[in-house]
Design goal:
234 residues; FFLEE_fam; DUF8198; mainly alpha; single chain
């Protein structure tokens, strides 16, 4: 069985999202994701601005929390699956495993955020600027508590995998050697998606520690939202 079979399943989940055929929902999804990214940057300002964590913070915001950037990547993933045997030869197995975790997190973020966007469209005008109170009420109505906890657990698992598999000099050297092959077959976006994880790891002593600090605070916010606190994001 192909090591990339799980990637095929993730792509299918992504393709089933409703926003692909609904431009109004797509715009609201991007609005919701923009709000979330700003909120995350504000919440984790002290953590994200530590010099050793700045690259990983950007990876989080741009790669793991969805957004328009993922649409282009998904197109390349679909094409890459047609050449799975070549991809498996040129990308180290542990890099594939870690990349799958990252892609899985991005797809899950899109699924959760699309539900938020759809609920916002039901309750508010499509052009109304999203504020904290709108988002608080929407999250309570959707009751995504357990799904958000699952998302954070998957993030913790990614932190362990990054430390375990992506710190090897041999692994990184092997991955760099694949760059020419990736360009030859036009898999640059997928290569960059994994490669940015390598680069973000370099200044850090531990990805697991960084992600644990991030998820700890995010769990506090999830709990505040669903326990009815008036200002959970502050």
């Amino acid at each position: 069985m192909s090591k990339l079979a799980a990637l095929d399943q993730l792509l299918e989940q992504y393709q089933q999202l409703s926003y692909h055929s609904d431009p109004i929902l797509k715009q609201r999804l991007h609005d919701a994701q923009d709000w979330l990214k700003i909120r995350i940057q504000h919440t984790h300002h002290a953590l994200f601005n530590q010099p050793e964590y700045q690259l990983m913070a950007k990876y989080f915001i741009n790669r793991l929390y969805g957004g328009p950037e993922f649409d282009d990547l998904a197109i390349q993933i679909e094409r890459l699956l047609k050449y799975a045997h070549k991809a498996e030869k040129m990308i180290p197995e542990n890099a594939i495993k870690t990349g799958l975790k990252s892609v899985g997190l991005a797809v899950l973020a899109m699924q959760l955020d699309e539900a938020v966007a759809a609920q916002l469209l039901k309750d508010y005008p499509a052009n109304q600027a999203i504020d904290d109170e709108m988002m608080r009420l929407t999250l309570i109505k959707l009751d995504q508590k357990q799904a958000r906890y699952q998302q954070l657990q998957l993030l913790d698992d990614l932190g362990v995998a990054l430390d375990k598999y992506m710190r090897s000099f041999i692994m990184y050297a092997a991955f760099k050697m694949c760059k020419g092959t990736a360009a030859k077959y036009h898999f640059e976006l997928m290569y960059d998606f994994i490669g940015e994880g390598f680069v973000a790891m370099k200044p850090m002593k531990s990805a697991e520690k960084f992600i644990h600090e991030f998820t700890l605070k995010e769990r506090e916010i999830v709990e505040k939202v669903h326990s009815g606190q008036a200002y959970p994001f502050r």
